[in-house]
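Support request from a user on the community tier.

User writes: "When I paste my structure tokens into the form, the page sometimes reloads and wipes my input. The last time it worked, I copied everything first. Here is what I submitted, just in case something in the input itself triggers the reload:"
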């Protein structure tokens, strides 16, 4: 949602209890936090994204860019590959 909503909206999105109580790392399928962000992106017709993928220490593991759905899936794949190296 960054870049298409106000700072106030981002604060609300990040404060709502729409993510699991356990860490959300590797929670990809039907993640309510992502679904809300996806809905906002579709409302404003986002056609290109640029995201970085961070590890739990906030270190950048990779970057993805392109069409909304495919770039997100590319980022998910980076996370899945990284998870194979950690229990």
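"...and here is what came back when it finally went through:"
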């Amino acid at each position: 949602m960054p870049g298409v909503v106000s700072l106030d909206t981002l604060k609300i999105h990040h404060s709502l209890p729409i993510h699991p109580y356990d860490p959300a790392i590797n929670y990809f399928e039907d993640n309510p936090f992502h679904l809300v962000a996806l809905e906002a992106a579709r409302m404003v017709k986002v056609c290109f994204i640029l995201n970085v993928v961070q590890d739990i220490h906030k270190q950048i593991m990779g970057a993805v860019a392109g069409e909304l759905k495919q770039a997100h899936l590319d980022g998910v794949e980076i996370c899945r590959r990284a998870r194979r190296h950690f229990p």
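Agent notes: The reload is a front-end session timeout and is unrelated to the input. The beta strands are 49-54, 60-66. Residues 46 and 68 are 7 Å apart (CA to CA). Escalated to web team.
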